[in-house]
Amino acid sequence: QVQLVESGGGLVQPGGSLRLSCAASRSIFSFNYMGWYRQAPGKERELVARIVGSTTYYTDSVKGRFTISRDNAKNTVYLQMNSLKPEDTAVYYCNLAFTYWGQGTQVTVSS
Description:
Layout: E1 4-7, E2 10-12, E3 18-24, E4 33-39, E5 46-52, E6 55-58, E7 66-71, E8 76-81, E9 90-96, E10 100-101, E11 105-109
Parallel strand pairs: 2-11
Antiparallel strand pairs: 1-3, 3-8, 4-5, 4-9, 5-6, 7-8, 9-10, 9-11
C-alpha cells in the first residue's frame, strides 16, 4: 500500500506559477508510471501530465506551460505550472501506477 499526499495548491492570479508536490509514503523507485490529473467542477477527471521512466507526456492545453518531474530520492513527483490560466482551475490529483491516488489539492486561478 502507498499513500500519496499532494501539496502546493492555492489561489494564484492569471499568469502566475505554482509547484505541486506529491509525496509518497514509500519508495517510488520501482514504479514506472506517475501522473497528474485534474477535475474541474462539473467535468470528468482528465490526465494533465504523466512520466513513464524518463518519458513525459502532456495534454495539449498545458504543453509548454507545465513540467512534470520526479525525485526518487525524495519519493516525490512534482508539477511545475507556469503561465496559469483561469481554465486551469481544478482539483489536482497525483496517481501512481494507475492504482494509488492522492486526496487532491485545489488550484484556483483568478484575479
